[in-house]
Amino acid sequence: MPRSPTVGLPELRILVVEDDSDVRTAVVESLRAAGHAVVAAADGTAALAQLGASSFDVVVTDVRLPGADGVRIFERGRELSPAPAVILMTSFGSVTDAVSLLKEGAADYLTKPFDPDELVARVRGIAERVGLQRALDAARAQLEAAAGVDIVGGSPAMRTLLERIATVAASDAPVLVTGETGTGKELVARRIHALGARKKGPFVAVNCAAFPETLLEAELFGYERGAFTGATRRRDGRFQVANGGTLLLDEVAEMPPAAQVKLLRVLQDGCVEPLGADTPVRVDVRVISATHRDLRRRMAEGLFREDLYYRLNVVTLHVPPLRDRPGDLPLLVQHFLRVHMPREAPAPEISLGAWQALAAYPFLGNVRELGHAVHHAIVMSRGGRIDLEHLPEDITRAVAPNQSDALRPLAAVVKQAEREHLLRALAVAGGKRVRAAELLGISRKNLWEKLRAHGLSDSDVDEEREP
Questions:
Q1: Is 299 helix (H, G, I), strand (E, B) or coil?
Q2: CATH number of 409-461
Q3: What are the structural domain ranges in the chain?
């Protein structure tokens, strides 16, 4: 009975073309056991008919065939859209033909006789690429359907956040937006403004950490001419500029004590007092604050006023870090490709190695750092295919220790991976070899042979007595 594909990998539609019935049966059964949908053809004519009638992700074909040879099947497949990946099965005498087709775009080839498990491993690599491409295609389609939406994400955490934004936007209550650096807190504030009743008013953002203590009050509340040295003319503060709209106080935790006192008065009275002015100025502003710090800890340390905290924190919205929303990575990558590529240029392909590096990297700078990485890769690849080498050095250096296997012979890497997988299957099966063989989709005899080949004794396996 066919088992499901490896977790996280798609089921592929595969056409197997082989005139030798024994080889054809062995290949078909192995691929079906790996969880793929397989169609078989005994000659080239039947294969061409199948290619004309159905779409396939992969074609596994002999080079020498009656009716039409593997070269013709490869050429026909290349004419299709999307074109299937072609793996060639070849005898020693036709290896030259297979190599020439590799140069023209064939995915791989195997020399007969070969272990069907080796073919399954090659197909698994194609499944990884197909799964990535499907995820990116779905992300592109979702982005096109949501054109104009400024917050990118379809993960459960982001859907919850978007729902809360819509709810909060309907009120005029102060909002505190929390989240790590680079998560997009300002985008959340802008989204609240765009959905609210103040959307026709101004949206003004001020970074409280960007101004020294002596200038922040002047920036927020304004000043009159002569209020201090250098004040040669009157200037409205950010509160007055945002009148009728929304003011974002970014990095509000960095606000010095004196400015906190004046901000509290503005929130209580609805009036600002410009420096050097005798008369308060009434303002109508919705205040949204944002910070990556723990404001409760800042209060405990005496760095932030408790009464101001409760004025600002009527509603809290937390923006999740990128590591908590890995399902959004394809969406975000497609978004940044679209942002940084010329308008009419097609989005470049991303290699499996580059994608795996992006997926494994922690992105402590969150979405902002990912956007930088994609932009860097586009520049370094000159708008073409993005490979691992085109990513920023921080990412390639981080994954380098995990790529030490690439310096070992491929056969050794595969053998080690198979050994670990056998032991894992036996552990899941409680040491029962019959059950482990079922989980692996192989016969008990085949399992026993593999254990012996890996030098695994009963003491290593810790096998339980079976009926």
A1: helix
A2: 1.10.10
A3: 13-141, 156-320, 323-406, 409-461
Taking the mean position of all CA atoms in its chain, how far away is CA 357?
10
113 prior amide bond cis, ω within 30? yes
Eight-class DSSP state of 108? E
What is d(CA 397, CA 401) in angstroms, rounded to the nearest whole number? 8
Q: How far apart are CA 267 and CA 121, in angstroms?
A: 64
- Digit-coded pLDDT (tens) for 385-398: 899 899 999 898 87
User: What phi, psi does 57 have (nearest 5°)?
Assistant: -85, -35
Instruction: Summarize pLDDT for 68-120 with one digit per residue, the tens.
Output: 888 899 999 888 878 899 998 887 666 777 777 887 888 888 888 888 888 99
What class, spelled out in words, does domain 13-141 have in CATH?
alpha beta
Would you say the CATH fold of 156-320 matches that of 13-141?
yes
Backbone angles phi, psi at 245, to 5 degrees: -130, -140
* Interatomic CA distance for residues 415 and 454, integer angstroms: 8
CB 399 within 8 Å of CB 430: no
Which CATH code for domain 156-320?
A: 3.40.50.300
Burial of 186 (0-12, 13-18, 19+ CB in 10 A): middle
How far apart are alpha carbons 12 and 124 in whole angstroms? 10
Token pair recorded at residue 461? 């396996």
CA distance to 34, 66, 118, per residue, from 85 (Å): 17, 22, 16
281-282 and 271-272 as β-strands: parallel, antiparallel, unpaired? antiparallel
Angle between helices 329-340 and 116-145 (to 10 degrees): 60
Q: How many CB atoms lie within 10 A of CB 153?
A: 23
CB 336 within 8 A of CB 297: no
Q: Looking at the domain that runs over 323-406, which CATH code has it been given?
A: 1.10.8.60
- Note whether 356 and 366 are within 8 A (CB): no
| Residue 1 DSSP code | -
The residues pairing with 330 across neighbouring beta strands, listed in sequence order, are none
Q: How many CA atoms lie within 13 A of 107 on its CB side?
A: 22
- Predicted local distance difference test score (pLDDT) of residue 463: 42
Closest C-alpha to 201, from 174, 166, 239, 152? 239
Higher pLDDT, 144 or 339: 339
